[in-house]
Design brief:
It is a single chain. By secondary structure, the protein is mainly β. It starts with 7 loop residues before the first strand and ends with a strand. Helix content is 12%, strand content 36%.
């Protein structure tokens, strides 16, 4: 799809955050997780941290479709509302993105505002 000119590929809508790849300067999101969900309180999958979500702020070159920047803002679902999470949860999401992105060469850098900037080769 990317080789045909698609600028962003949004893959399976997983219930938790998955890997991010930048291929030929095009963004591939393997799973963004749930932004809001009615699964709160259901137990059994706590290790996936379904209570954490990301807001994706993507900048593309309007002429070429190439990725310019990707800023991800961590959020936490609590009582069916979104709020900014504690620093440890933002760090956990950043660490997860680094682990999942390693095979693709993508890195997540957590900044002072507790937003995550995506970096790629």
């Amino acid at each position: 799809m990317v080789e045909e000119g698609v600028a962003i590929v949004h893959a399976h809508s997983s219930h938790h955050v998955k890997a991010i790849e930048v291929f030929k300067d095009r963004l591939i999101l393997y799973g963004c997780g749930d932004f809001l969900t009615d699964y709160e309180g259901i137990s059994g999958y706590e290790e996936f941290r379904g209570d954490l979500a990301l807001m994706y702020f993507i900048e593309l070159n309007s002429q070429t479709g190439q990725l310019g920047s990707a800023r991800l803002v961590p959020m936490k679902m609590r009582r069916f509302r979104l709020e900014r999470p504690p620093a440890a949860d933002a760090e956990s999401l950043s660490d997860l993105l680094n682990k999942l992105g390693a095979p693709f060469g993508t890195r997540a850098r957590l900044n002072k505002a507790k937003s995550i900037m995506l970096e790629w080769p």
